[in-house]
Design a protein that fits this description.
- The chain has about 260 residues and is α/β, with parallel strands linked by helices.
- The protein has a single domain, classed as NAD(P)-binding Rossmann-like Domain (Rossmann fold, 3-Layer(aba) Sandwich), CATH 3.40.50.
- It contains seven helices and seven strands, in the order βαβαβαβαβαβααβ.
- A seven-stranded parallel beta sheet has the order 3-2-1-4-5-6-7, with helices on both faces.
- Helix 1 runs parallel beside helix 2.
- The protein is globular, with a radius of gyration of 18 Å.
Protein backbone atom coordinates (compact mmCIF):
# COMPACT_ATOMS: atom_id res chain seq x y z
CA UNK A 1 0.00 0.00 0.00
CA UNK A 2 1.16 3.58 -0.62
CA UNK A 3 2.72 5.56 2.23
CA UNK A 4 4.22 9.01 2.66
CA UNK A 5 7.54 7.60 1.46
CA UNK A 6 6.04 5.49 -1.33
CA UNK A 7 3.72 7.25 -3.79
CA UNK A 8 0.69 5.48 -5.16
CA UNK A 9 1.73 3.28 -8.11
CA UNK A 10 0.50 4.48 -11.49
CA UNK A 11 -0.97 1.80 -13.76
CA UNK A 12 -1.91 2.20 -17.42
CA UNK A 13 -4.41 -0.33 -18.81
CA UNK A 14 -5.38 -0.48 -22.47
CA UNK A 15 -8.97 -1.39 -23.22
CA UNK A 16 -9.90 -1.04 -19.57
CA UNK A 17 -13.43 0.29 -19.92
CA UNK A 18 -15.28 -3.03 -19.80
CA UNK A 19 -15.12 -6.79 -19.29
CA UNK A 20 -11.78 -8.18 -18.06
CA UNK A 21 -10.00 -4.86 -18.54
CA UNK A 22 -12.39 -3.08 -16.17
CA UNK A 23 -11.90 -5.79 -13.57
CA UNK A 24 -8.12 -5.46 -13.86
CA UNK A 25 -8.47 -1.72 -13.29
CA UNK A 26 -10.69 -2.38 -10.25
CA UNK A 27 -8.10 -4.75 -8.77
CA UNK A 28 -5.32 -2.18 -9.07
CA UNK A 29 -7.53 0.59 -7.66
CA UNK A 30 -8.38 -1.60 -4.67
CA UNK A 31 -4.65 -2.21 -4.17
CA UNK A 32 -3.99 1.52 -3.79
CA UNK A 33 -2.97 2.41 -7.34
CA UNK A 34 -3.85 5.34 -9.57
CA UNK A 35 -5.06 4.57 -13.08
CA UNK A 36 -4.74 5.66 -16.67
CA UNK A 37 -7.32 3.72 -18.66
CA UNK A 38 -7.57 3.81 -22.44
CA UNK A 39 -10.57 2.95 -24.55
CA UNK A 40 -11.62 2.96 -28.20
CA UNK A 41 -15.41 3.21 -28.60
CA UNK A 42 -16.41 2.56 -24.97
CA UNK A 43 -16.27 6.11 -23.62
CA UNK A 44 -19.55 5.87 -21.71
CA UNK A 45 -18.59 2.57 -20.08
CA UNK A 46 -15.20 4.04 -19.18
CA UNK A 47 -16.80 7.05 -17.48
CA UNK A 48 -19.17 4.87 -15.45
CA UNK A 49 -16.37 2.51 -14.41
CA UNK A 50 -14.15 5.44 -13.44
CA UNK A 51 -16.72 6.53 -10.86
CA UNK A 52 -16.38 3.16 -9.14
CA UNK A 53 -12.60 3.24 -9.25
CA UNK A 54 -12.50 6.78 -7.84
CA UNK A 55 -14.67 5.67 -4.91
CA UNK A 56 -11.65 3.67 -3.68
CA UNK A 57 -9.52 6.82 -3.60
CA UNK A 58 -7.82 6.24 -6.94
CA UNK A 59 -7.00 9.08 -9.27
CA UNK A 60 -8.26 8.09 -12.72
CA UNK A 61 -7.41 9.47 -16.14
CA UNK A 62 -9.33 8.28 -19.21
CA UNK A 63 -7.78 8.50 -22.66
CA UNK A 64 -9.04 7.48 -26.12
CA UNK A 65 -6.51 5.25 -27.86
CA UNK A 66 -7.56 3.43 -31.06
CA UNK A 67 -5.22 0.60 -31.94
CA UNK A 68 -6.02 -0.43 -35.52
CA UNK A 69 -3.98 2.32 -37.24
CA UNK A 70 -0.32 1.92 -36.21
CA UNK A 71 0.67 5.47 -37.10
CA UNK A 72 -2.21 6.96 -35.11
CA UNK A 73 -1.59 4.59 -32.20
CA UNK A 74 2.07 5.61 -32.08
CA UNK A 75 1.25 9.33 -32.22
CA UNK A 76 -1.44 9.13 -29.52
CA UNK A 77 0.74 6.99 -27.28
CA UNK A 78 3.55 9.52 -27.65
CA UNK A 79 1.19 12.35 -26.66
CA UNK A 80 -0.15 10.42 -23.67
CA UNK A 81 3.38 9.59 -22.52
CA UNK A 82 4.28 13.28 -22.73
CA UNK A 83 1.22 14.15 -20.62
CA UNK A 84 2.16 11.60 -17.95
CA UNK A 85 5.75 12.86 -18.00
CA UNK A 86 4.46 16.33 -17.15
CA UNK A 87 2.05 15.15 -14.46
CA UNK A 88 3.91 12.38 -12.58
CA UNK A 89 7.19 11.79 -14.39
CA UNK A 90 6.89 7.99 -14.14
CA UNK A 91 4.79 4.94 -14.88
CA UNK A 92 4.90 1.79 -12.75
CA UNK A 93 2.75 -0.77 -14.58
CA UNK A 94 1.60 -1.08 -18.19
CA UNK A 95 -1.11 -3.67 -18.94
CA UNK A 96 -1.76 -4.58 -22.58
CA UNK A 97 -5.33 -5.81 -22.29
CA UNK A 98 -7.05 -4.45 -25.41
CA UNK A 99 -7.39 -6.94 -28.24
CA UNK A 100 -9.44 -7.98 -31.26
CA UNK A 101 -10.89 -11.48 -31.49
CA UNK A 102 -12.74 -13.04 -34.40
CA UNK A 103 -12.48 -16.16 -36.53
CA UNK A 104 -10.86 -16.14 -39.96
CA UNK A 105 -11.52 -19.38 -41.89
CA UNK A 106 -8.65 -19.66 -44.34
CA UNK A 107 -10.80 -19.40 -47.48
CA UNK A 108 -12.39 -16.20 -46.13
CA UNK A 109 -9.27 -14.52 -44.73
CA UNK A 110 -8.56 -11.19 -46.39
CA UNK A 111 -5.63 -8.77 -46.02
CA UNK A 112 -7.66 -6.27 -44.00
CA UNK A 113 -8.62 -8.85 -41.36
CA UNK A 114 -5.07 -10.09 -40.97
CA UNK A 115 -3.65 -6.58 -40.82
CA UNK A 116 -6.24 -5.45 -38.25
CA UNK A 117 -5.61 -8.40 -35.93
CA UNK A 118 -1.85 -7.95 -36.12
CA UNK A 119 -2.07 -4.17 -35.64
CA UNK A 120 -4.26 -4.39 -32.54
CA UNK A 121 -2.93 -7.55 -30.88
CA UNK A 122 0.80 -7.31 -31.60
CA UNK A 123 2.06 -4.09 -33.16
CA UNK A 124 0.09 -1.69 -30.92
CA UNK A 125 1.51 -3.20 -27.70
CA UNK A 126 5.02 -2.92 -29.12
CA UNK A 127 4.58 0.73 -30.14
CA UNK A 128 2.92 1.67 -26.85
CA UNK A 129 5.66 -0.01 -24.83
CA UNK A 130 8.25 1.88 -26.86
CA UNK A 131 6.64 5.20 -25.95
CA UNK A 132 6.32 4.39 -22.23
CA UNK A 133 9.64 2.60 -21.68
CA UNK A 134 11.43 5.77 -20.45
CA UNK A 135 8.66 6.39 -17.90
CA UNK A 136 8.68 2.75 -16.77
CA UNK A 137 12.41 3.05 -16.13
CA UNK A 138 11.65 5.78 -13.57
CA UNK A 139 9.37 3.58 -11.47
CA UNK A 140 8.95 4.05 -7.75
CA UNK A 141 8.31 0.34 -7.15
CA UNK A 142 10.96 -1.59 -5.25
CA UNK A 143 10.31 -4.60 -7.51
CA UNK A 144 10.78 -2.52 -10.65
CA UNK A 145 8.15 -1.60 -13.17
CA UNK A 146 6.20 -4.23 -15.07
CA UNK A 147 4.59 -4.72 -18.47
CA UNK A 148 1.82 -7.33 -18.45
CA UNK A 149 0.53 -8.71 -21.76
CA UNK A 150 -2.81 -10.50 -22.01
CA UNK A 151 -1.89 -13.43 -24.24
CA UNK A 152 -3.91 -16.55 -25.13
CA UNK A 153 -3.14 -20.16 -24.24
CA UNK A 154 -4.59 -21.25 -27.59
CA UNK A 155 -1.80 -19.34 -29.34
CA UNK A 156 0.80 -21.31 -27.38
CA UNK A 157 0.63 -24.71 -29.04
CA UNK A 158 -3.14 -25.35 -28.72
CA UNK A 159 -4.49 -23.74 -31.92
CA UNK A 160 -8.19 -23.44 -32.55
CA UNK A 161 -9.78 -24.21 -35.90
CA UNK A 162 -10.47 -21.18 -38.10
CA UNK A 163 -8.54 -18.73 -35.91
CA UNK A 164 -5.17 -18.72 -37.70
CA UNK A 165 -4.85 -14.94 -38.13
CA UNK A 166 -5.87 -14.23 -34.54
CA UNK A 167 -3.60 -16.94 -33.16
CA UNK A 168 -0.66 -15.66 -35.21
CA UNK A 169 -1.14 -12.16 -33.80
CA UNK A 170 -1.27 -13.45 -30.22
CA UNK A 171 1.77 -15.67 -30.85
CA UNK A 172 3.63 -12.52 -31.89
CA UNK A 173 2.57 -10.89 -28.62
CA UNK A 174 3.94 -13.86 -26.68
CA UNK A 175 7.27 -13.46 -28.44
CA UNK A 176 7.22 -9.77 -27.55
CA UNK A 177 7.04 -10.77 -23.87
CA UNK A 178 10.22 -12.80 -24.16
CA UNK A 179 12.05 -10.29 -26.34
CA UNK A 180 11.24 -7.18 -24.31
CA UNK A 181 12.02 -8.99 -21.06
CA UNK A 182 15.61 -8.89 -22.24
CA UNK A 183 15.45 -5.44 -23.82
CA UNK A 184 13.94 -3.65 -20.80
CA UNK A 185 15.79 -5.43 -17.98
CA UNK A 186 16.79 -4.78 -15.27
CA UNK A 187 14.42 -1.92 -14.36
CA UNK A 188 11.33 -3.25 -16.13
CA UNK A 189 9.94 -6.78 -16.05
CA UNK A 190 7.78 -8.09 -18.91
CA UNK A 191 5.33 -10.94 -18.31
CA UNK A 192 2.22 -12.45 -19.83
CA UNK A 193 -1.06 -14.00 -18.72
CA UNK A 194 -2.52 -16.56 -21.12
CA UNK A 195 -6.17 -17.29 -20.30
CA UNK A 196 -8.28 -20.05 -21.70
CA UNK A 197 -11.74 -18.65 -20.92
CA UNK A 198 -12.12 -16.14 -18.10
CA UNK A 199 -15.15 -14.42 -19.62
CA UNK A 200 -17.30 -15.73 -22.47
CA UNK A 201 -17.63 -13.59 -25.61
CA UNK A 202 -20.67 -11.30 -25.80
CA UNK A 203 -21.35 -12.43 -29.36
CA UNK A 204 -20.06 -14.74 -32.05
CA UNK A 205 -17.99 -17.84 -31.38
CA UNK A 206 -18.77 -19.49 -28.00
CA UNK A 207 -21.36 -16.93 -26.98
CA UNK A 208 -24.01 -19.68 -26.92
CA UNK A 209 -24.44 -22.24 -24.14
CA UNK A 210 -23.93 -25.35 -26.30
CA UNK A 211 -20.51 -24.15 -27.46
CA UNK A 212 -19.58 -23.20 -23.92
CA UNK A 213 -20.52 -26.63 -22.57
CA UNK A 214 -18.46 -28.27 -25.33
CA UNK A 215 -15.44 -26.17 -24.38
CA UNK A 216 -15.76 -26.91 -20.66
CA UNK A 217 -15.80 -30.65 -21.31
CA UNK A 218 -12.10 -30.24 -22.14
CA UNK A 219 -11.25 -28.21 -19.01
CA UNK A 220 -10.01 -30.40 -16.12
CA UNK A 221 -11.40 -27.99 -13.51
CA UNK A 222 -14.79 -28.18 -15.28
CA UNK A 223 -15.54 -24.47 -15.20
CA UNK A 224 -14.62 -21.24 -16.85
CA UNK A 225 -12.37 -18.83 -15.05
CA UNK A 226 -13.57 -15.41 -13.92
CA UNK A 227 -12.56 -11.88 -14.72
CA UNK A 228 -11.75 -11.43 -11.03
CA UNK A 229 -9.31 -14.35 -11.13
CA UNK A 230 -7.61 -12.92 -14.20
CA UNK A 231 -7.35 -9.51 -12.59
CA UNK A 232 -5.80 -10.92 -9.43
CA UNK A 233 -3.14 -12.77 -11.42
CA UNK A 234 -2.28 -9.58 -13.32
CA UNK A 235 -2.10 -7.56 -10.10
CA UNK A 236 0.12 -10.15 -8.41
CA UNK A 237 2.52 -10.40 -11.33
CA UNK A 238 2.81 -6.63 -11.60
CA UNK A 239 3.13 -5.68 -7.92
CA UNK A 240 4.49 -8.71 -6.08
CA UNK A 241 6.29 -11.14 -8.38
CA UNK A 242 9.50 -9.16 -8.47
CA UNK A 243 11.76 -11.99 -9.69
CA UNK A 244 9.61 -13.12 -12.62
CA UNK A 245 10.23 -11.81 -16.11
CA UNK A 246 9.89 -13.24 -19.59
CA UNK A 247 7.32 -15.79 -18.42
CA UNK A 248 3.74 -16.34 -19.57
CA UNK A 249 1.39 -17.82 -16.97
CA UNK A 250 -1.41 -20.01 -18.32
CA UNK A 251 -4.72 -19.27 -16.61
CA UNK A 252 -6.86 -21.97 -18.14
CA UNK A 253 -8.11 -24.44 -15.53
CA UNK A 254 -5.85 -27.05 -17.08
CA UNK A 255 -7.27 -26.68 -20.60
CA UNK A 256 -3.77 -26.72 -22.11
CA UNK A 257 -3.33 -30.25 -20.74
CA UNK A 258 -6.44 -31.75 -22.35
Amino acid sequence: MPTADRPRPLVLITGGARRVGAQIAAAFAAAGCDLVVTYNRSEREAEHAAERWRSTGARVTLAPLPLDDPAETDARAEALAAEITRSTGRLDVLVHNASAYFSTPLAETDPADGARLYAINALAPLLITKRFAPLLARTALATGSCVVCMCDMHAMGRPRKDFAAYSMSKAALAEMVRSLARDLAPRTRVVGVAPGVVQWPDEGHESDEDAQRAYLRRVPLERAGTAEEAAEVVRWLALEAGYITGEILRLDGGRSLA
